[in-house]
Amino acid sequence: MHNGFLLVLLFTNITFSHAQDYDQISKEICKSFKKKKPAKNLFDFNKYLNSEAEDFLISDVNIFQFNLQKSLIKNCTEFPFIENYSLVPFSNVVDLEKVFNREELAKLEKQLKKIQKTNRFQLFIISTDDYFPNENITDYSFSILNNNSSDRFQKGNMIIVFNLKSREVRISTNDIARNIISDDFSQKLIDEVVVPNFSEEKYFKGINEAIVKINEKIVVED
Predict the structure, then answer these.
(1) Residue (of 125, 50, 132) closest to 95 by Cα position
(2) How far is 126 from 147, CA to CA, in rounded Å?
(3) Average pLDDT over residues 179-187
(4) 122-127 and 168-173 as β-strands: parallel, antiparallel, unpaired?
(5) Cα dist. 219→119, 120, 210, 212 in Å?
(6) Is the pLDDT of residue 115 over 60?
(7) pLDDT at residue 29 in the model
(8) With contact defined as beta carbons under 8 Å apart, do 162 and 201 qualify?
(9) For the chain, what is the largest distance between any 2 Cα atoms, rounded to a whole number of angstroms?
(10) Among candidate residues 182, 187, 184, the one with its CA nearest the CA of residue 170
(11) What is the DSSP string of the chain?
């Protein structure tokens, strides 16, 4: 269930100042939940998204949403429906570390949408320097994968998470995808494709080549 997407819809008509801190916003939202009243005059979501961004990307919403959800998880512990991160439907990229430029993000979004449509396979790409509320990259990746996977994709669901700060990369799959993408295949991608490119700071090239090889593997298994 995509609780985070519902959260975005709830607050699209309230007023936001970009300089406001996410923690402060989340605390105000928590108060509104407790009072069972709408959180008015907190932020203008549309203004936030349209700030100098003619090339709007759905992944922009994901960055906003992940940051807000993190603060809500911290500050709204009495609300169990906010337990982990949800991506906006139709976008599988969350670049929290701001690794990719606008053109690269657009290419990734298009590439992943095409794989979903033509090959019935869902792949997420997450860059982050913080695993909260999880303690490690493995738990973090499976938490996001399990919370956002859809049964609509007959060949399964997969996620690539990387953390440049801690120099970690993780590829996780659900049970269906593991029938096509083995753990050995995923580890080989990390060792031979992702890490060599990342070591040269070619982050987009590393992720893009990994996606291409994953897609080739899926097509072969048809």
Answers:
(1) 125
(2) 14
(3) 95
(4) unpaired
(5) 7, 10, 14, 11
(6) yes
(7) 75
(8) no
(9) 55
(10) 187
(11) --HHHHHHHHTTTSB--TTS-HHHHHHHHHHHHHHTS--TTS-BHHHHHHTT-SS--HHHHHHHHHHHHHHHHHH-TT-TT--S--PPTT--EEETT--S-HHHHHHHHHHHHHHHHHH--EEEEEE-S--TTSSSHHHHHHHHHHHH--TT-TT-EEEEEEETTTTEEEEEE-HHHHTTS-HHHHHHHIIIIIHHHHHTT-HHHHHHHHHHHHHHHHHHT-
The terminus-to-terminus CA distance of the chain in angstroms comes to 29
Residue 117 has pLDDT above 60, yes or no: yes
25 alpha-carbon distance from chain centroid:
21
Please, are residues 7 and 68 in contact by the beta-carbon 8 Å criterion? yes
State the pairing for strand pair 168-173/157-163.
antiparallel
State the residue for tokens 């009072």: 35
Per-residue pLDDT reduced to its tens digit, 53-101 = 456 788 888 888 888 888 888 877 665 555 678 887 777 999 999 999 9
* Exposure on the CB side of residue 179, measured as CA atoms within 13 A: 8
- Could you give the strand order of the β-sheet that contains 122-127, starting from the edge strand earlier in sequence? 93-95, 122-127, 157-163, 168-173
